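Q: Fold this one first, please.
A: Sequence and structure below.
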Amino acid sequence: MNATSTDAQADLTAIRALLQQSSDAWDRSDGTAYGACFTADATDVTFVGTVYHGAEEIGRAHQALFDSFLKGTRLTMEILDIRRYGADTAVVVTRGEVSKGKPKKLGKLATYILVREVDGRWRIAAVQKTKRRSLMEAISFRAQPATKPAATQ
C-alpha cells in the first residue's frame, strides 16, 4: 500500500469514527459532545425542516431535545456511501433511525458534508435528514419505472 492509499484509508477510518462519535454522543444524551462533531458554522437540517446553525446551537438545541422529546433515545446509523471530493471534503449518505429500543427499520436518510479543518480533524459541515416515504416511492416507481434508481432495481 502506498502513502496515498494509506492516507485515504486513514481518512475513511477517521470519517467513520466521527459519525460513530456523533452517534455515541446522541446515545449518551450529550448535546455538548454532539455539537462538538460539527464545524463552528455548520448547518443541520432536521427531517421536520428545522434548520440549526453552528456547532454551539446544534449542541444546545439537541441537549434540549435529549432532555425532552428525545429522552432515552438511541441513534442507529448505517453508512451507505462515502465519497471524497479532494483531500479535505467528503459526502456521506447514511440510513438510520432514532428509537428507544432496537428500531424495526431504518427509515431516515441523511446526507452529511464533512470537512477536514485546520486542526486536521474531520467535522460535520452540513447534514440534511429526510424521512423515507417508501409507499410514495413505490407508487412513483410503479407509475414511472424510469424514476427507479439502479441501486434499488
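Q: Good. Now the second chain.
A: Here it is, same layout.
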Amino acid sequence: MAVIDDHSVVTGGVASWCAAADPPIDLAASYTNPSAFFDDPAASPAQFDVVILDLQFNQRVPDLGALTQLCEGGFRVVVYSSHADGDLVLDCLDIGAAVYVSKEEQPEQLIAAVRAAASSRAHVTGAMAQAMAQDHRPTRPALSPRERQVLLAWFQTESKALVGRHLHITPGTVGTHLERIRTKYAAVGRPAPTKAALVARAIQDRLVDANDL
C-alpha cells in the first residue's frame, strides 16, 4: 500500500494505524504529492494493491486529476480527504475511487476501507452514505428482479464465481448481468465503471440498503 498526502501528521497516523491493525497492513511507501508518485518507476498496481490519496495539494480546491490518472492506471484508490461535500464524494466514485473516507471519520474506517479495496469488496463509509442519501437525481434505470439479485449477491461476495455458486449460474452469466446493469446506468448518463460506483448507484436508487452490505 502507498499513501499520497503532503501532511506528515497524516502519513504518520496512517502508518501507525496500519501497524496496529490486526493483521497489520504493510505501508510500503509514502509520497508528498501525486507527481512524486507518478515519477517513481516502482509505483505500479503490482507493487501497491491500494493507494490512499488526498485530494488537495498546493491548491485551494480539490483536484481530481490525480485520482483520474490513478484509476485509469489500474490502481485501487481510497480517497482520504478533509472534504466531505456530497457532490465531490459522488464525483470521486464516478471516476473510479474504491472508497471515499472523510478525515473526520475514525481510523478504523480507513483501515476497513483499505481492506475492502484490497479485496475488491464493497464498503460504505459515513461520508459515502450521507452523499448517497442526499443524491436525488431522477434518472433511474429499470433493473429486472434477477439483475437486482445478482447485484446484491455481488456486493456481498468477493468474486463472480462465488455469486454464480450462490445463485446456481455460471460466472459468465454473472458477468453478463453486471455488464447489462452498467450499460443501463451509462444509458441514463450515470456511468458506474467500478464496484464502488455501482454500490453508490444502487443505494441512491433504493435497490439495496447500506445495511445489506
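Q: Anything worth noting on the second one?
A: The chain has two domains: 2-133, 145-212.
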